Amino acid sequence: MSESELQAYTLKELSNYDGNHGTSPALLLGLNGKVYDVSSGANFYGPGKAYNVLAGRDSTRALAKASLKAEDIPGPDDDPVDAMGLSESELETLKGWEQRLAAKYAVCGRLVSQ
Ligand code: HEM
């Protein structure tokens, strides 16, 4: 499947997939322009779990900076994170997360601006 055939999600649409809205798939995670179906990682991302703040969100800046602070997690009305704004070392960290998540979860979409 080519990139442009992937379903497009704004951060507002993505925000429904945080495990609290009865969606199918249950849990999606945005990372560097892509959307991963992380439903099988409900023990990490599900409601009440350690990384639920990342579910239904663009996790790019949070994972690149190893930060779970609200300021590093864009909200439903924001645009996706542009990785160009990250430092060299943050980009390295981001690459590691992309490899880890791509090995574990299917890409089911792409992030687009509102
Ligand atoms: C004291 C700090 C931390 C500890 C001890 C810790 C520990 C862990 C452990 C044990 C796992 C499970 C690994 C596995 O079974 O595969 C995990 C997963 C994860 N951690 Fe952390 N973590 C910490 C901080 C963070 C931070 C700051 C972030 C992000 C900003 C983060 C993001 C994640 C994510 C996204 C997963 C799930 C990855 C997946 O879907 O496989 N962690 N963490």
Automatic annotation (TrEMBL):
Top-level taxon: Eukaryota
Chain ranges of the Cytochrome b5 heme-binding domain: 9-112
Alphabetized InterPro entries for the sequence: Cyt_B5-like_heme/steroid-bd, Cyt_B5-like_heme/steroid_sf, MAPR/NEUFC/NENF-like
Residue stretches in coiled coil: none
Pfam families reported for this sequence: Cyt-b5 (PF00173)
Assigned GO CC terms: endomembrane system; membrane
Family matches, as Gene3D superfamilies: Cytochrome b5-like heme/steroid binding domain (3.10.120.10)
PANTHER family: CALCUTTA CUP-RELATED, MEMBRANE-ASSOCIATED PROGESTERONE RECEPTOR COMPONENT-RELATED
Sequence similarity: Belongs to the cytochrome b5 family. MAPR subfamily.
Name of the molecule in the record: Dihydrodipicolinate synthase
Organism: Coemansia asiatica
Organism lineage string: Eukaryota, Fungi, Fungi incertae sedis, Zoopagomycota, Kickxellomycotina
